[in-house]
Amino acid sequence: DSTWSELILCLGKSVILCSIAEKGAMWCCILSFLCNHLFCVTTAKY
Fold this sequence. Notes:
single chain, mainly alpha, 0% strand, elongated
């Protein structure tokens, strides 16, 4: 299913952003995760 592959790609990007973020920027990690996840879900619908 293409929707799952898109979701996995988005989650992967979030993990990468989290890993390169400064250790004190957990909020940045969470925001990037939510942002990528929402973007992935909204674009997968179309």
